[in-house]
Amino acid sequence: MRPSLNFFASRTVSWYMARTFISRTFAVLAGLVVILMSLDLLGESGDILAQPGNGQAAIWHYVSLRLPQIIQRFVPFAALLGTLVTLVRMNQNSEIISMKAAGISAHQILAPLVVASLGIAVLNFWFNDHVVTRATAALSAWQDVQYGPIPAEKSLVSNIWVRFGDDLIHVDEVTGKGRAAVLHNVAYYDREKDRLVAIANAATGVPAGDRWKLINVKRFDVATGNTTQLDAVLIAQGLDPSRFTLANVNGDNLSFGALAHTIEQLQAAGRPTTALRTQLWHKISGPLSIILMPLLAGIAGFGLARSGRLFIRVIVGMALGFTYFVADNFALAMGNIGAYPPLLAAWAPMLLFLLIGEAVLVRTEE
């Protein structure tokens, strides 16, 4: 029978394939989460209970914060294993052979799984953006105090460099936020066309209208070599106070929109953003990698089950999937240190293994 050129075989077959894949993917995910959460608790429960006042409630609080991280991280693994379980079982029951005898191609068999994976990827992106980022921020703050009481936020950052036009501003410490920000030990480098004109050192700096007011200033003029003592100097018209408080940004703690806005502010402040831009793009490419899993594991579904090579095909499918995760983590690490451009670090592994998975499928079946 001549194979159909339609993307899907039929509504009945597509719905059956997608439903089976989704149910087994979430079953695998549930098992992984239970096992990994139990192992994680074995390592962390002692530290949690070591803090005076922590008991069973603290353990459950830790579980509520850690569980979203585990779910989000292992959804692609669950999709890979769910595809393998689905296709191997159908192969053993001769369902794949029946579909192919009816003229359904390998791509049409996998198409419902890919579409279902896309839905899971969208759900995973939303879950990461609205749940995981908040849980990660709360857990990081709790772990910073060794699972003790979290003190009130001091809104203090240190060793800040800001570029404003041609000028550079260095601040030892910043307390407060917004219009209540106070700069401590300020060094203002007045430059014109990359030529240093003067250096002003001040004990403090505070917002004054649309400028910043430096108090108790020593100004050194480069051209004359003279030092002048001034009570106050106004600088940096239009400089936003938030640019002094953007320090130690953790992309895992921010949603996609919040991280994109933070990157814009950091770029305006003249700070490096390569690692954060890599994380930003990976917030999209990471969940989308789920759509690769049916393609990489598809090799396990084709060929005769009684040929004795089914186990080998399962191993190859698992190897392709886990090799992708290794390549993705390696590229992400290279992007974080600036060795790879952000777009390449986030998207290259996915595109590479998309081609590999398609080539393997065509080579083995089509």
Automatic annotation (TrEMBL):
Domain of life: Bacteria
Transmembrane parts of this sequence: 21-39, 70-88, 109-127, 284-303, 310-327, 339-362
Topology of the protein relative to the lipid bilayer: Multi-pass membrane protein
Keywords associated with the record: Cell membrane, Membrane, Transmembrane, Transmembrane helix
Primary location recorded for the protein, binned into one broad class: membrane
Tagged with keyword Plastid: no
One Pfam family recorded for the sequence: LptF_LptG
InterPro entries the record matches: LptG, LptG/LptF_permease
Record flagged with keyword Transmembrane helix: yes
Subcellular location: Cell membrane
PANTHER family: LIPOPOLYSACCHARIDE EXPORT SYSTEM PERMEASE PROTEIN LPTG, SLR0882 PROTEIN-RELATED
Designated name of the protein: Lipopolysaccharide export system permease protein
Taxonomic source organism: Sphingomonas vulcanisoli
